[in-house]
Design brief:
single chain, alpha+beta, Bifunctional nuclease domain, 7-stranded mixed sheet, 34% strand
Length: 155
């Protein structure tokens, strides 16, 4: 599936934002801040980076998923991923689509027996669920989030 196909949801004839493939590069805590920072890196040149803060528990869950650290019992994101798999629902893509102040907006693109569904969600939730999938899930970032400071309205 191409980046264009993964950017579905744009009305026919309309042009949507440029979407760039990215990977979760790191989840870290740099003191004196008290919140983990997620670092996304473009997979192709110019390999820009995007970082944003998440809540402590979200950072822990994302870090566990990124490092494939097993937990004694399933965390919420692991449970969600298991439920999606049990009902044959594929995670097609994660898209970061906007920013207002320090808050980023994401979408989780799902496909099941009855069709496709795009769910608005927090980036940390979408990324953590994606990392728990049995196959790699594309992470797409609106290029404007790499290029501009300030607010970026979801397209």
């Amino acid at each position: 599936m191409s980046v264009e196909e993964l950017g579905e949801g744009v009305p026919p004839g309309a042009t949507g934002p440029e979407l760039r493939m990215a990977v979760v590069s790191a989840v870290s805590v740099d003191l004196p801040t008290q919140h983990p920072t997620v670092l996304l890196r473009e997979t192709e040149s110019p390999r820009r980076q995007l970082s944003f803060a998440v809540g402590l528990q979200d950072g822990i869950a994302l870090s566990h998923a990124l490092r494939r650290i097993p937990t004694p019992r399933p965390l919420s994101h692991e449970l969600t991923a298991s439920i999606l798999q049990a009902f044959d629902i594929d995670v097609v893509a994660v898209r970061l689509v906007g920013r207002q102040g320090p808050t980023y907006f994401a979408e989780l693109d799902l496909r099941g027996r009855t069709g496709r569904s795009v769910q608005s969600c927090r980036p940390s939730d979408a990324l953590t669920i994606a990392l728990h999938q049995p196959v790699p899930v594309p992470i797409l970032v609106d290029a404007r989030l790499f290029e501009t400071e300030g607010d970026v309205a979801p397209a």
